[in-house]
Amino acid sequence: MDKKGIGATLVILFIVLFLSAVGVLPVLEHHADVQEHEPTEATVTSTDIEIEEDDDGDKSYKPVVNYQYTIDGETHRQDNVFPGGFARSFGSRSEATAVTSEYESGDQVTIYYSPRNHGAAYLRNDGMPGMWWVGLLNVGIATAGGYWLVRTGFRRRKQRQLMEDTPTEKAQSLSMGPSEIKGTAVAEDGSPIPAPFSDEECVLAKYEIEEYDDDHDDDGGSWKTVEEAVVHTPFSVDDGTGSVLVRPHDDATYDLDPDDWSEIYVDSSNRGPPAVQDFVQSVGDVGFPADRPGRDNDRKYRQNLIKDGESVYVFGTVHPREDAPPGATDEDRLVVRKVEDGDALAEPMYLISDDEEQDLVGRREWALWRLPVGIGFLVGGVAMAVGMFGPQVGVTLPILL
Question: In whole angstroms, what is the distance from residue 321 CA to residue 175 CA?
């Protein structure tokens, strides 16, 4: 099961739904009122400014204009100033006063009421709600998320087909071009690299550094990734018939066994074990967090290793080795590496893993579930864009009627 992909999709969905409530729905309600409400005359009865204060002591100021109007012989009273069902407030009293100062008790004004609900009305249209930019951001997130899902779905489906359709080759009989090999990882020249956060040695390591941010609000804190990368060194794959050199690349796909992740939890009051300290100091940009109470600034150092002597799976492109030593055997004249720009050889995939091939294929079995979900995000993004900005250029939205 592709737990990571499903998790990422749920995160995108949550963000899109949240931002829709904050930035899209107010704009849609605004357009709905402007589009369907009809004008009539009303009398201003009073004005006021409502002051609201949040938990941090920040104040907002809402202009209130009370007015009454008569429709079909029935008198209605309303204090809604702007279109839509979401109240609009300002960050300063002067901004709210600028609105209410235009009206005095007894003034005759034109208001706009709903033909379906005569008691619903608004006084003036000053343009879209101020949070429209959140809706625009949401459109970008939805469309980018949809594109990522569709693209990733096709890519993972292609990866699965390549692994299923490509037979495993032996090191002693490797041919040029795309190839699949399995065997034991052996560090080149017998020189593995140190693991990021432990005293172990490896030929490749994926690592993540997560830091807890308390946020200092009622929503609680969350873990944020402050650093993640892959470190590697050239290694050979020995399958018993011979060995072939593999040169990892930062742009390769590293799909390591998800059960092999290890984690070290470090309180912000200390810097962790020596291996962690040495690695953080060598990275330079990460540094050590300030000591904070509770979990704030605590860290989790996570790593997943391909160790020297561990089983490994490589799907990549076999090239002639330019630095092959004189008298080298056939397999020693070859290397699996990233295809460079302008290279004549095609590269359908470059993947390195310490997991079983059947598990790699299994995690891609339902790769195409991303397509309908991604298309849904794309359609949703386009629909939000049309709903928010279509009326600005004269587009009528029947869905709002």
Answer: 13
- Token output for 346: 């095609």
Does 360 map to a domain?
Answer: yes
Whether residue 303 is contained in a domain is answered as yes
- Measuring CA to CA, how many Å separate 221 from each of 286, 289, 297, 298? 20, 16, 10, 11
Are 19 and 130 in a shared domain? yes
As to burial, measured by CB atoms within 10 angstroms (0-12 exposed, 13-18 middle, 19+ buried), residue 111 is buried
Co-location of 220 and 336 in the same domain: yes
The residue whose two tokens read 């490589």 is 314
* pLDDT in the model for residue 346: 66
pLDDT score, position 217: 55
Q: What is the structure's pLDDT at 340?
A: 79
Rg (CA), the chain: 31
According to the model, what pLDDT value does residue 324 have? 72
The answer to whether the beta carbons of residues 226 and 209 sit under 8 Å apart is yes
Distances in whole angstroms, Cα of residue 252 to Cα of each of 10, 229, 248 = 26, 12, 7
212 touches 223 (CB < 8 A): yes
DSSP symbols for 78-142? E---SSSSS---BSSHHHHHHHHTT--TT-EEEEEE-SS-TT-EES---SS-TTHHHHHHHHHHH
CA atoms within 13 A on the CB side of 48: 8
DSSP class of 23: I
Cα-based distances in Å from 215 to 47, 54, 211, 212, 220 = 38, 16, 12, 9, 7
- pLDDT value of position 221: 83
- Residue 27, SS3 per DSSP: helix
User: By residue range, what is the domain housing residue 360?
Assistant: 168-365
User: What is the reported pTM?
Assistant: 0.72
List, for residues 277-303, the tens digit of each pLDDT value: 999 998 878 889 999 998 899 999 999
pLDDT beneath 50, residues of the chain: 400-401
What gap in Å lies between CA 389 and CA 16, rounded to an integer?
18
Judge whether 155 lies within some domain.
Answer: no
Let me know whether 315 and 392 are in one domain.
no
Are 308 and 392 found together in one domain?
A: no
Task: Please say whether the beta carbons of 286 and 227 come within 8 A.
Answer: yes
374 touches 156 (CB < 8 A)? no
pLDDT digits (tens, 9 = 90+) for 159-188: 999 999 999 999 888 888 899 999 999 998
